[in-house]
Amino acid sequence: LARRHPDVLFHVTTGRPAVALTLDDGPDPSVTPEVLDVLAAFRARATFFMLGEAALAHGAIVGRAVAEGHAIGNHGWRDCPCRRLALPTFLDDLRRAHAVLSAHAPVSLMRPGSGLIRRDQRRALPGLGYRCVLGSGYLLDAHLPQGRPLAAGLARLAAPGAILIAHEGPGRAG
Q1: pLDDT tens digits, residue range 72-101?
Q2: Which of 4, 44, 60, 112 has its CA 20 to 30 A from that of 66?
Q3: What is the pTM of this model?
């Protein structure tokens, strides 16, 4: 996929033994503070792809994430498959979320809701100053019963430069 979509970031080329941890659908007041505590305990950093609506409601959590050295990205205004949105609605959602998120830190990365984005949406991103980030693999697959961890494939997913995706929104921890 990376060759077919060079404008989308699926992994990072690096010689370091490091992966990028990303979390979607927050901030969530019942989950995000705990995630931040764990990351702090291990002196680890992550990128939080936040929903504008949730960030507006929980600005203190966004501020804490930024103050602790984490990056934030735009995940749209609310949790919905962005592929289903008409281009003007998609752009409006990004702009609304950007207005909230950029009050806390610069925001130049976005991840589409449900991980699917149309060509017209993808092509509009550079004009808004965004780069689309998908990833190398999911730490949890919501399609499996109880969101069972994909432990069998974790070693493969955790290759240097991998972008790992987890969820922190309501009822989606893991």
Answers
A1: 999 999 999 999 999 999 999 999 999 999
A2: 112
A3: 0.89
